[in-house]
Write the structure tokens for this entry.
Amino acid sequence: MLFLDITREQLLPLMPKGGRCAEIGVASGAFSQKIRESVAPSRLHLIDPWVHQADTAYAADENNLAQAEQDARFRNVTAMFAPQVADGSVVIHRAFSADAARDIPDGSLTFVYIDGDHTTDVVRADLETYSRKIEDAGFILGHDYANHPGARAQNMGVIEAVNAFVMDTDFDFVFLTRETWPTYVLARPGNAHLASVMGALLMMSVKMTEVTGFPHTTRFSQSIVRLGDTVRVLPRFEPVAR
Ligand SMILES: C[S@@+](CC[C@H](N)C(=O)[O-])C[C@H]1O[C@@H](n2cnc3c(N)ncnc32)[C@H](O)[C@@H]1O
């Protein structure tokens, strides 16, 4: 795995252009716009139920807004992407990811960006379901591979879900961005696009660190460091205790 000193916005343009992709968890559509601008997808599936979820493990998530605000977000996203919905390059699914999957053919996506319900069981289910949706040379990306106190307070379990998925399947953990809310990238071995992504990273002189045995024998965690008024989230890699 390569730990990349870039943001998710800088990572996006390295993904294959012009393909079909999906974003699970759209919220106000800010990152959906970045996906459109960066990779000009021929079709972008935007998946979000825009519903308040009161009695679930997701209840504490800061994006679990009241229903009136969810409705407002949905209206804004619909207005924002009206031209693309009309020409068929954007499809809005007001649905949970498990239900929207029925409308997306297997093997049809260049990449998926998983950023919906961040609890361990739902992320694991999204990984299982949407790994079948991507093409052989496709990528699984996802947000919030984080376990600092801000992530734990929202009951996020992305790290646990992704690690278990990688250890149980043939997917490799290829990249992780160095951010407070990191984005991970998974790919099947021999992915035909990986060489060009690596070439682009080298051309950009991106600072990167190779972490071997990840996540099988090396794990990631984040700790908080306070320097006066400044609070920093520090990434840490350490061997798995045997
Ligand atoms: C963190 S926000 C998404 C942020 C967005 N990807 C961005 O970067 O701007 C999470 C969103 O996931 C949605 N969500 C929650 N559970 C979901 C599920 N099971 N399937 C799809 N979306 C879900 C919520 O309604 C919320 O709008």
Summary: The CA atoms of residues 48 and 58 lie 14 Å apart. The chain has a mean pLDDT of 97.
